[in-house]
Structure formats: C-alpha cells, structure tokens
C-alpha cells in the first residue's frame, strides 16, 4: 500500500539512518507535510494568542504526529520497509479520525513516525518559521529482537547578527529527544523516561 523503501538486513545502522534522514529532507518539501505543519502552527498561535516559542512549536509538532498517525508496530522480519511521508499520512480506513484533517489517521511504525516528525521540523523554516532542524536517531537495544528508531530536534538558542550575510549564523542548542511512539511524550524526554513516566515501563520500545 503506497511507496516504501525496502531495507535489506545487510545494510548497517549508520546507512539506514542516513537513508531515513534523506527521506525526511524530501518529505519536508512535500505539500502534505507543509500543509499539516501550517495547520498545526496556526492552531497553536490561535490557542496561545501570541507567537509561539520554538520549544512550543516543537512540542506541537510532536503532538501533531500522534494526531495524524496511528502507531502500527513492525512485524518481526529480517527485512525492513521505510514508508515515504505521503504514504504514512495517507488515511487508513478503520483508523480513528484525525482532529487535524477530519479523515482517518495514517499508520506507521517507529521509523515512519520518526521520519515524519523530522520532516515536519525541517519544514518549519521552509514555511517562514524560526530556524529548526529535525533528524532520525538510531537506538540499539541489546538483547531485544529489534532496535528502535526515534527522532530528535534542534533549535537556535540565539541569533547573532552578521552584517556580511545580513543575518545569522545561529547558535544551536543541543539535540533534544522527540519520541514518536509514546503518546504524551515531551520534547527533550528520553524515550525510556517517557515510557516509565506514562505508566508502561514494562514495555520494550521496538519498531
């Protein structure tokens, strides 16, 4: 159902992460991602009645992933499939209705939802918003049948004026976690911490 990238078991984790991040850059430029980011930003501004801060935007994007996509765990296999963002967001009949689109939510596993968040974060400055970066992060899980993929986000702590370039460069903050498979997760919260805080600490985090 839709476009997917087949990942052979021989492809090492660093190359898998590079492929996902390349797909995130592509996804940030798609009309569907930019449209969803615009709606999330507009609703956030209306709710706050002021311009949101960068951390508030990042949290709204993370919450938006859960509003747009129903988590569907990976089937155990020696092969993996990465969905393009357009297909992760495609309404799936039978899923709950998204409060953002009024249509059934899409579906995706940890790779798909992390890729989507990274694409959404990368789309923010493309739409005239503040500087923001998003990326996919690989989490090895020794002793478990699958590793985990999560996302991270980065924003500037300050902007220094540079007359030569008429703006910038940016002083970037450290990367912050953005866990896309645990509803209620907070920006900056380690996936395992989110899992423990939300009352399901016995569950392992897998694809």
Fold blueprint:
Elements lengths: L3 E4 L5 H16 L2 H18 L5 H15 E3 L8 E4 L1 H4 L17 E3 L1 H17 L6 E7 L8 E7 L1 E4 L10 E3 L3 E3 L12 H7 L10
Parallel strand pairs: 2-4
Antiparallel strand pairs: 1-3, 5-6, 6-9, 7-8
Helix pairs in contact: 1-5, 2-3, 2-5, 3-5
Large-scale geometry:
globular
How is the largest sheet built, in terms of strand order?
5-6-9
| Secondary structure category | alpha+beta
| Strand portion | 15-25%
Order of SSEs, N→C?
A: EHHHEEHEHEEEEEH
Number of strands: 9
Outline the biggest β-sheet: 3 strands, antiparallel
Q: What is the rounded Rg?
A: 17 Å
- Which bin fits the share of residues in helices? 25-40%
DSSP summary: helix tally: 6
Q: What is the residue-mean pLDDT, rounded to a whole number?
A: 86
Low-pLDDT stretches? 160-165
How many angstroms does the end-to-end distance come to?
19 Å
């Amino acid at each position: 159902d839709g476009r997917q990238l087949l990942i052979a078991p021989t492809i090492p984790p660093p190359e898998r992460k590079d492929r996902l991040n390349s797909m995130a850059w592509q996804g940030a430029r798609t009309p569907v991602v930019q449209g969803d980011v615009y709606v999330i930003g507009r609703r956030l501004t209306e709710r706050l009645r002021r311009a949101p801060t960068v951390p508030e935007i990042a949290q709204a994007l993370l919450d938006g992933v859960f509003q747009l996509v129903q988590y569907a765990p990976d089937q155990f296999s020696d092969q993996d499939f990465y969905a393009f963002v357009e297909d992760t967001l495609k309404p799936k009949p039978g899923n709950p209705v998204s409060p953002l689109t009024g249509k059934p939510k899409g579906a995706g596993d940890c790779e798909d939802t992390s890729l989507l968040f990274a694409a959404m974060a990368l789309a923010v400055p493309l739409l005239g918003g503040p500087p923001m970066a998003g990326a996919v992060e690989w989490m090895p899980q020794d002793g478990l049948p699958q590793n985990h993929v999560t996302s991270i986000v980065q924003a500037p702590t300050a902007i220094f004026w540079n007359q030569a370039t008429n703006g910038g460069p940016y002083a970037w903050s450290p990367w912050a976690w953005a866990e896309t498979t645990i509803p209620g997760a907070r920006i900056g919260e380690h996936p395992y911490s989110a899992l423990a805080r939300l009352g399901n600490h016995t569950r392992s985090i897998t694809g």
